[in-house]
Amino acid sequence: MSPTYDVIVIGLGGMGSAAAHHLSARGSRVLGLEKFGPVHSRGSSHGGSRITRQSYFEDPAYVPLLLRAYELYDRLERDTGRDIAALCGGVMLGRPDSRTVSGSRLSAEQWDLPHEMLDAKQIRRRFPTLTPGEDDVALYEARAGLVRPENTVAAHLQLATRNGADLHFEEPMTRWEPYRDGVRVHTAEDTYTAGQLVICPGAWAPELLTDLGVPFTIERQVMYWFQPSGGVAPYLPENHPIYIWEDVEGVQVYGFPAIDGPDLGAKVAFFRKGTPCTPETIERTVHDDEITAMAEQVGRLIPGLPGGFLKAATCMYSNTPDEHFVIARHPAHPGSVTVAAGFSGHGFKFVPVVGEILADLATDGATEHPIELFDPSRLAATPA
Ligand SMILES: Cc1cc2nc3c(=O)[nH]c(=O)nc-3n(C[C@H](O)[C@H](O)[C@H](O)COP(=O)(O)OP(=O)(O)OC[C@H]3O[C@@H](n4cnc5c(N)ncnc54)[C@H](O)[C@@H]3O)c2cc1C
């Protein structure tokens, strides 16, 4: 007889580990299946840091979810004693009419979020590492900062295990099918049945969610660590904020303070501007011309940062056409399957609240969180 569960969660990366925790905390019998080991670097949830912020330029509809995510991140730190979030403050920088500045301001004003608008002179005075152009302005948010992805995933896995979830690593799902009122899931090792399936596939969405009809595209992204020319002191979190800077061409660069000691420098990356890939074919080598392009671009805003190149690592974005998430009951299997995918390079700051939403959807069929924006029917290909 196959083992039976209330819920099977596929993928124990950022979203799936949070779902496994929230479901098991509510008393569900949970099986989590993960293709690789715990907290790995072959998906989208590695690299030491992720920006978190509330004045959300992408859409004000994300703000209530962010407010809840902040509460849950706090609780996760308390419950596990791990170092997860550092709210060092952040600047969203660019021309006043850039999406980064105007969109952040819209969210801040609409939701009455604490923020300050700074002109170029004020930015330079407050953050001497930054040299914005004369026409640049910034929205400064004291509650912006970073979360640590590996520690977040490890914390959720730890709590899920403590709650009694069965977590199987190196055991990918090979296929699943509807079975009685629920689902049957196959792996090379075994077959499992459950009332509910929650699929959190990250960059494997095109493979695992073909029947959703959403045109996901997977993008190779690179994270770069540079050693500042004058040492890391001016780049420590008490002096140097997280930043997203949009230039006049609309190219966005973002980065972090030096959070990992004097030898590991500070991390910086392009937001978007990646190349299409698949998890199987992604080019993991980072080439000299890419490093040069990154150093040149970030050097325009932070001349002291690209002193020496330290290292680079690749990661994948899973994009939807409008860059909004997909979080919903599966339209073809609304009674038994829930999906969370297409986080389009900005999902990590939401991880704990997505876990809570997935637990709501899988156990109650609905959630009180506002997720209308994430309905996959907005993107599904219209039948010919
Ligand atoms: C370079 C980079 C920078 C980013 N910066 C930010 C940022 O600053 N702020 C922010 O909020 N977000 C950021 N993001 C986005 C954020 O990290 C992602 O949205 C988030 O990590 C996605 O989590 P996930 O659970 O969907 O994917 P993953 O964490 O990759 O999890 C998917 C899991 O599914 C598993 N899997 C796949 N197939 C199977 C199968 N058949 N059976 C079992 N398991 C399977 C995979 O092994 C993987 O572990 C960034 C992403 C990248 C790549």
TrEMBL record:
The keyword Flavoprotein applies. Its EC number is 1.5.3.1. SUPFAM superfamilies: FAD-linked reductases, C-terminal domain (SSF54373), FAD/NAD(P)-binding domain (SSF51905). It is found in: Cytoplasm. Keywords: Cytoplasm, FAD, Flavoprotein, Oxidoreductase. The keyword Cytoplasm applies. It comes from the Bacteria. The modification S-8alpha-FAD cysteine is found at residue 315. Its main location: cytoplasm. InterPro entries: 3-OH-isobutyrate_DH-rel_CS (IPR002204), FAD-dep_OxRdtase (IPR006076), FAD/NAD-bd_sf (IPR036188), MTOX (IPR045170), SoxA_mon (IPR006281). It catalyses: sarcosine + O2 + H2O = formaldehyde + glycine + H2O2. Its cofactor is FAD. Transmembrane segments: none annotated. Pfam families: DAO. It is an enzyme of class 1 (oxidoreductase). FAD binds at residues 6-36. Monomer. PANTHER family: FAD DEPENDENT OXIDOREDUCTASE DOMAIN-CONTAINING PROTEIN, PEROXISOMAL SARCOSINE OXIDASE. Catalyzes the oxidative demethylation of sarcosine. HAMAP family: MSOX. Belongs to the MSOX/MTOX family. MSOX subfamily. This is Monomeric sarcosine oxidase. The lineage of its organism: Bacteria, Bacillati, Actinomycetota, Actinomycetes, Kitasatosporales. The gene is solA.
